Amino acid sequence: MAKSASPDQALIAMPSFKAMRSFVAAAKYRNFTRAAEALCVTQAAISRQIRELESHLGTELFTRTGREIRLTTAGTALFDAAQLSLLNIFQATERIRREKSDKRTLTLFCSPAFSALWLSHRLKDFFSAHPDIDLNVITTQHFQVMEPGITPDILITKTIDLGPGYQRIPLFHEVVYPVCTPRYLEAHPESGTPQGMRNGVLLDLNPYGRSQLTEQVDWNVWFAFQSHDLQIPASDSPQYFSSNDYGLLMQMALDDQGLALGWDHLVKPLVQQGRLVRPVPEELALREAIQYLMINEKKAGDPACQRLRDWLIGQFA
């Protein structure tokens, strides 16, 4: 005869889900009547659930003044935890429900810069062509350290050592060149030469937090590859700014604050729109720095995943 499980005291002592839902609604709307309308129940039902919850906890959760209710200190503490917990439950059940519906949800991993500068303005075309696919985009610089419970279907990354289970499709090699706004170049015409750029306001990409990238290209590296014996100013110079946030650097460049190194696949649309210009024709082609599309082998035969894969590859054709 199988041994019965011992009672789970934490689960036994936990308030009912219905009572917690009534409490969160009442706390959110600060009114029992509005909470009842939101949950499609009677006001009496809300009041009863709150009384039972307060009795269970041995403390008041609301102070009542006429029709107005306010959270007590205990009520505030419970609301902060309960609201987040119920939201997490809702999101989990929605994900499960969507998986059983006609719509498919795919998870795409990419870098923050790729998401903001490349993917964002193209997604409307994808959704227009594939209305039955929902997309969950997760941005990270650390593709080799994925959070538990999140399994990407497709990744766009330079990191190729993800272990077994992923097919690899090369997309393009990287090309890097200086960019700035037309207004900045007009105000600093000397930036039309490498020496002039050296004496300008350089917005530099530093390596902190980017250790998993295959190489680090900053202004010193770019000048060295162009065979210019130039060094950027010391980091305490007002003409130099450094950050590991590429999105920040590009926004500063767009705000006429200096010269940044532009990765062609990220800044090309901005150059084509005239929002950024290339002050010099020199560029650095990193033929060994290849961006790959990595697809989960378990999803490689899935029609929805194939459509996302083909769409992404088509954007680079």
TrEMBL record:
Coiled coil: none
Record's keyword terms, sorted: DNA-binding, Transcription, Transcription regulation
SUPFAM superfamilies for the chain: Periplasmic binding protein-like II, Winged helix' DNA-binding domain
TM ranges: none
Any one Pfam family match given in the protein's UniProt record, by short name: HTH_1
GO molecular function: DNA-binding transcription factor activity; sequence-specific DNA binding
GO terms under biological process: DNA-templated transcription
Domain HTH lysR-type residue range list: 15-72
Membership in a protein family: Belongs to the LysR transcriptional regulatory family.
Protein name: Glycine cleavage system transcriptional activator
Species this chain originates from: Pseudomonas fluorescens
Lineage: Bacteria, Pseudomonadati, Pseudomonadota, Gammaproteobacteria, Pseudomonadales
Gene that encodes it: gcvA_3
